[in-house]
Amino acid sequence: MRRLIEFEAVRSVCQGADTEPIRESLARFSEVRDDQDWETAAQADMGFHAAVVAAADSPRLSRLFQTISTEIRLLMALLRPRYPQVSTLHDEHTVLLNALIAGIPEEALQLWAAHLNDAEAFLSTRISEEPSRDH
User: Fold this and answer.
1) How many angstroms separate the CA atoms of 35 and 32, rounded?
2) Long-range CB contacts for residues 112-121, cutoff 8 Å, separation at least 24
3) pLDDT 10s per residue in the chain (135 long)?
4) Whole-angstrom distance, CA of residue 19 vs CA of residue 96
5) DSSP state string for the chain
6) Farthest-apart Cα atoms in the chain, separation
7) Contacts of 50 (CB under 8 A, 6+ apart)
């Protein structure tokens, strides 16, 4: 579901949407230090993605993203070991923003897919390593 929402938002933003709110969210993200708690970094990450969806100016996409955002936040908690340095996560988002600004949807979508694929692969491994909690 996240891919459908964000990929459509990326296509829309690449067609000339205002990227200033996305830039502002990344600027706030850059203020998160490596020694801060992971929740702060996760909020900055989610803020960036929410800004991209909002920039698409589609109430339907925004509503759908809001619907799944709680689930995304829960999974973000499991990503902490993947990003020992918050700055690494910030740098990934800088690349994503630059792709949006370039306005070439195919390139932006390729980078977006790689970003989500990496998280998905890490989470799949991490979740399969968790002990079963049969009750």
Assistant:
1) 8
2) 112/6, 112/7, 112/10, 113/3, 113/7, 116/2, 116/3, 116/6, 118/82, 119/75, 119/79, 119/82
3) 999 999 999 999 999 999 999 999 999 999 999 888 899 999 999 999 999 999 999 999 999 999 999 999 999 989 999 999 999 999 999 999 999 999 999 999 999 999 999 999 999 887 776 665 554
4) 12
5) -HHHHHHHHHHHHHTT---HHHHHHHHHHHT--TTS-HHHHHHHHHHHHHHHHHHTT-HHHHHHHHHHHHHHHHHHHHTGGG-SSHHHHHHHHHHHHHHHHHT-HHHHHHHHHHHHHHHHHHHHHHHHHSPP---
6) 51
7) 25, 65, 69
CB 31 within 8 A of CB 70: no
Single pTM value for the model: 0.90
Measured distance CA(114)–CA(130) in Å, rounded: 24
Instruction: Identify residue 21 by its one-letter amino acid code.
Output: P
